[in-house]
Amino acid sequence: MRFYDEMQENDAALGVRPHYRRFDDWLKRQSDATMARKRAEADLVFRRVGITFAVYGADSGTERLIPFDMIPRIIPRHEWTVLEEGLRQRVKALNMFIHDVYHDRNIVRANVIPADQVYTNAQYRAEMQGVDVPLDIYAHIAGVDVVRAGDNGDFYVLEDNLRVPSGVSYMLENRKMMMRLFPELFVQNKIAPVAHYPDLLLDTLRSVAPAGVDDPTVVVMTPGMYNSAYFEHTFLAQQMGVELVEGKDLFVDDNAVFMRTTHGPRRVDVIYRRIDDDFLDPLAFRGDSALGIPGLMSVYRAGRVTLANAVGTGVADDKSIYPYVPDMIEFYLGEKPILNNVPTYQCRKRDDLAYVLDHLPELVVKEVHGAGGYGMLVGPASTRAEIENFRQRLLARPAGYIAQPTLALSACPTFVESGIAPRHIDLRPFVLSGKTVTMAQGGLTRVALQEGSLVVNSSQGGGTKDTWMIE
């Protein structure tokens, strides 16, 4: 399978792509011993700072470093401009869709999206029907997974993460690490900064405070230290200069949310919650949740506290809704999508299911509610027995799956045990929506470290790289 190489031209005779040439010249001057020493230094610092993620399942209770690769993924400005315009367009349409779903239902009435796809969706929250949120923004923080494929390296959106997207702390820490290890690279190259992301995030959160609140109190709400992304929760709270709280630190009184402090209760206006809908309020959702705030939804529905992201955003990032996003862009904005979707077969449709069953060895099949690289089949990398086992799961519950062609994801040179070799990558830029739509000019590049692997998730052994938007 041919793939687009981020660093090398398709025609080998042309050598390194222009935006990588200065870095390539620098890399050739570095000795193996120097790079090995720098890699060891990075591992030591990351471990000392505590940049780890919790592992669930067989190794439950263990903490791992996410492997960090020192060869950056570099994107030239003209490519970034297209990507940024496409992401702004997409997130704007997704926010309009979520508002429409919970209000006028125009897109359903127009038969653009089947009603049952929306209103029987596990992520649809009936509690949000008719609830108005500030500026009609639901997905304040969106992490959109983008891949490049084909000989020309065209961008495709792989999925939209609108509930509690994670990973931005690694984008920021990867940049800090590269600046620490190789400061000369940042003198030699015009690399767009990303360190101001926490300021952008805080400005976005403050801009969506309830009406009439001029100086809002913002908090980050975490499920607690045993959550896999707890490092990120603490990191973002510290970087924004706001309090990190758990549900037990907050309470509802007089139709408002308050935080317990050593100086007495303090009103809270905006909650950047890193906790799923189900656990937010035991009076509205799961009654056994010890993580939430009893009565929170009544305050939220009254417009006296803002939740970012809004309750019910998951209805728009479900993989069964994903195929309709280009239709949303045309329906709400009257524009053609700038970024393409990956062609997708909806197994709930009889003809699509028949095709998928006939071509399982060639396809990637995903659970519509799946995440983290779990619950999926990568046909070309699977054994006959694994394919047949997945076939039975598909036949038993076809509506629970979509399928896509196996894309030849672009590859970037990466340090592996054998030296420098190409490894497949994706990109998660973070789009912030408030009074304006903003984003840092970079993102989290994830890399599949195993040769030939297309699964970049950290839980599946993937690593990360610094992402440079370069002039």
TrEMBL record:
User: From what superkingdom does this record's organism come?
Assistant: Bacteria
List, alphabetically, the SUPFAM superfamilies matched. Answer: Glutathione synthetase ATP-binding domain-like (SSF56059)
Residue intervals of the Circularly permuted ATP-grasp type domain: 72-448
InterPro entries on file: ATP-dep_Glu-Cys_Ligase-2, CP_ATPgrasp_2, UCP005522
Pfam assignment, any one:
CP_ATPgrasp_2
* PANTHER family attached to this UniProt entry: BLR5612 PROTEIN, SLL1039 PROTEIN
Q: What is this protein called?
A: Circularly permuted type 2 ATP-grasp protein
